[in-house]
Amino acid sequence: MRFTPVLTRMFPNDWYVAPLGELATIRSGGTPSRSTPAYWGGDIPWVTTGEVKGATITTAQECITRKGLERSAARLERTGTILIALYGQGPTRGRVARLGIEAATNQACAAIAPRSALLSEFLFHFLIGNYDSLRGLSNKGSQDNLSGALIKRFEISVPPIPEQCAISEALSDADRLLGEMKALIAKKRAVKQAVMQLLLTGKTRLLDVGGEWEMKQINNLATVDPENLSSSTDPDFSFNYISLEQVDAGRLLGVSVEVFRTAPSRARRVLRHDDVLMSTVRPNLMAHLHFTSQIPLAVCSTGFAVLRARPDAANAGYLFAHLFGYVVNSRIERILAGSNYPAISSRDVRMIELPCPPTVAEQTAIAAVLSDMD
């Protein structure tokens, strides 16, 4: 085995660097032997690039189950095999998974079986940590792809086996802690959803003010798309732009500085403090935002409807909460059911009805509780 000298690399003296192809068997696709009848005739877990998500696959429920072999370009892989997604749009290409069960894969995944000098668990963590470098290997063309040949040339820094064990154990402990935190977050989200159902429908009242709830159209509660940049805007006007991709379920992930002359054609909706951004393109992804930031000269995409609450009719936080609730989303689903494109219009938004308490004060109290839970 030819190892790369570690003379100029910042590693301990007992580490070495070698191409992955010299440390593991790498393959993809291939037809399994007919001597594996359960594989050919039974229900088998099947891993595609969609199931390669940076985790260990431990149950068949995390895979697609197929009846027997449906494609010839497939192979049954053993527990401990590392998978790398070779193809895929967006962030999929270069993602890694580790098999905790026997499962079938096809030519879209590289299956890596480490040899004795390399522990499967260590390799799994190493590849996750070098995700960007893996993607950087991709062939360039109409669609960037990885290949088995490229993966074989990828260099791995290898410590002695005892150190591989210690590193893997430490990182696995961190993964378990993150898993527990995610489970706790999921539990709290479920609690919040239950509270939302009670508070946003009037089943539980926060203020002893009496009065009946009634259904009101968003158009009566807020001005929809109140300000837009016109074609006569100064070409040198500079602003902070918020695109659909920069909003994730109530979180602003970032902004970009644009100049009107060269800005995206969707960069048109002017934002003010306390505006609510409602995603109208793929609204099921819930890329909604309560804009309470002090970002100056903010403009968002026309992929959002901007709701500016009428002071005498609605609280912005209350409107924002409803965008994640059952009433609004069931209405959106009905609208999308008759459409060929996953989007709704600003007119659709104006017509959506939601339950409202008799006073803005009660809306404000509800919004405060749900905001505190967030």
- Which geometry do the CA atoms define? elongated
How helical, in percent, are the residues? 25-40%
Total DSSP E strands: 23
**Please, what is the oligomeric state?**
single chain
Name the strands of the widest sheet in spatial order.
Answer: 2-10-7-8-4
Q: What structural class is derived from the secondary structure elements?
A: alpha+beta
> Which ranges are low-confidence, i.e. pLDDT below 50, for 5 or more consecutive residues?
1-8, 68-72
Rg from C-alpha positions?
Answer: 27 Å
Mean pLDDT: 86
The span between the termini is 54 Å
Number of helices: 10
Largest sheet, in brief, is: 5 strands, mixed
User: What proportion of the residues form beta strands (DSSP E)?
Assistant: 15-25%
Features:
10 helices; 374 residues; alpha+beta; 29% helix; five-stranded mixed beta sheet; 23 strands; 24% strand; four-stranded mixed beta sheet
What does this protein look like?
The chain has 374 residues and is of the alpha+beta class. The chain is 29% helix and 24% strand. It is built from ten helices and 23 strands. The protein has helices at 37-41, 120-129, 131-136, 148-153, 161-199, 218-221, 316-322, 326-337, 346-351, 360-373; strands at 16-19, 24-27, 43-47, 56-57, 64-67, 74-77, 82-85, 96-99, 103-106, 109-114, 155-158, 214-217, 222-224, 238-242, 247-248, 251-252, 256-259, 267-270, 275-279, 289-291, 298-301, 304-309, 353-356. It has a five-stranded mixed β-sheet. Strands 5-3-9-6 form a four-stranded mixed β-sheet. Strand 15 (247-248) and strand 16 (251-252) form a beta hairpin. It is elongated, with a radius of gyration of 27 Å. It starts with 15 loop residues before the first strand and ends with a helix.
